[in-house]
Design goal:
The chain is built from 10 helices and 13 strands. Strands 1, 2, 3, 4, 5, 6, 7, 8, 9, 10, 11, 12 and 13 form a 13-stranded mixed β-sheet that branches. Helices cover about 35% and strands about 30% of the residues. By secondary structure, the chain is of the alpha+beta class. The chain is globular and about 65 Å long. It folds into 2 domains: about 1-130, Gcn5-related N-acetyltransferase (GNAT) (Aminopeptidase); about 160-310, Aminopeptidase (3-Layer(aba) Sandwich). About 40% of the residues are buried. The termini are far apart. Bound molecules: coenzyme A. Coenzyme A binds near residues 40, 110, 111, 135 and 139.
Length: about 325
């Protein structure tokens, strides 16, 4: 009993040194939080033999989320140095944890748990019925921590990659007609309908964010006059998000997206493919794409059987 008490006190002291504070993130924190995230990801992926995975990038989506809903972004700070960052966003009924990272030198001291508690409170206040996130399959710590907060493993998500030249070989003709996404009310209505069917929530604000990203092109997908999905392609050859109104359309949507990506000048083509989307996985393998990083969707009970959706990345979903 005395030993347990002493251990508890020790942990409490480690979690709350005098100068460690948890506070809402500000816009001017976001360059430092990006640097922290890059170093924590690369520390993890190098330790597990995958080599460095992350590179610094402008924190545009973080800034967008902060302006949209500042309740979802938190930092742990000690003497002016940022030691941890948590960031969640909400769309309708879905709360998503985009990032949770702690400085590698300060992991295992309760900081991640404290930050996660604050974003889980964000989920509670938002009233979202579903909670989800994408983490690394090989990170035991994050998975255990998420289970502690009621989020459980749902399915693998594989990051696939290949040179454009390899993907282009014997690529089937694109089966769906495409129309560039614009910001009109009619387009937004179609996107809302597709998202409601594919992931159970409207993501209109996120489509507007992507519309403003000069490095990303979005298309609506049609069979005849019926709009059956959408797809985004980055100038770097990355595909996603992709969504379809029915599971049996997803392979055609992905085929069309592969063709659009292969027609560009990027050196590589890549995508995050859920383990539940058999036909899409088969196509990726047939087109010589390779599994680069194994990831995992974790979610609150009853959510996350994606068979009509390919996420953009672990932060955007
Ligand atoms: C994941 C991460 C944010 C957690 O933050 P942290 O400050 O290191 O974690 P904490 O000390 O608050 O909590 C650790 C908890 O994880 C759980 N845990 C750790 N190892 C575990 C294991 N092998 N099995 C099950 N649960 C485990 C325990 O609940 C543990 O708490 P306890 O020590 O009190 O029992 C941090 O380690 C990190 O940044 N890792 C690298 C990047 C990453 O993977 N981030 C998640 C991306 S989605």
């Amino acid at each position: 009993m005395a030993l347990r008490l002493a251990r508890g006190l020790e942990k409490l002291c480690r979690s709350y040194p005098m100068s460690l504070v948890y506070r809402p993130a500000r816009a001017d924190d976001l360059a430092a939080t990006d640097a922290l995230v890059v170093s924590a990801i690369n520390d993890l992926t190098v330790r597990h033999g995958f080599g460095p995975m992350a590179m610094a990038s402008p924190p545009s989506f973080q800034l967008f989320s902060l302006r949209d809903d500042p309740d979802g972004l938190w930092v742990a700070e000690d003497g002016g140095e940022i030691l941890g960052f948590a960031w969640s966003w909400v769309c309708g009924n879905v709360w998503f944890l985009a990032q949770l990272f702690v400085d590698p030198a300060r992991q295992g001291q309760g900081i991640g748990n404290e930050l996660l508690g604050r974003t889980v409170e964000h989920a509670r206040k938002s009233g979202a019925a579903h909670r989800a996130l994408i983490t690394f399959t090989f990170n035991r710590v994050s998975q255990g921590l998420y289970m502690r907060h009621g989020l459980f493993p749902k399915m693998p998500i594989y990051f696939f990659n290949a040179t454009r030249a390899r993907v282009m070989g014997e690529l089937p003709a694109p089966p769906l007609r495409t129309l560039t996404i614009d910001g009109s009310a009619a387009t937004m209505e179609m996107l809302t309908e597709i998202d409601s069917r594919a992931i159970g929530a409207s993501r209109e604000k996120h489509h507007r964010y992507l519309l403003d990203d000069p490095a990303t092109t979005g298309v609506l997908l049609f069979t005849g006059n019926d709009c059956v999905g959408y797809s985004y392609i980055g100038s770097n050859g990355h595909i996603g998000p992709v969504a379809a109104t029915r599971p049996d359309i997803l392979r055609e949507a992905f085929t069309t997206a592969l063709k659009l990506a292969a027609d560009r000048s990027a050196e590589n083509v890549s995508a995050f493919l859920p383990g539940t989307c058999d036909s899409v996985l088969s196509l990726a393998i047939k087109q010589c794409m390779r599994i680069t990083f194994p990831m995992l969707l974790m979610a609150s009970p009853g959510y996350g059987d994606w068979t009509q959706y390919l996420p953009r990345n672990p932060g955007f979903m």
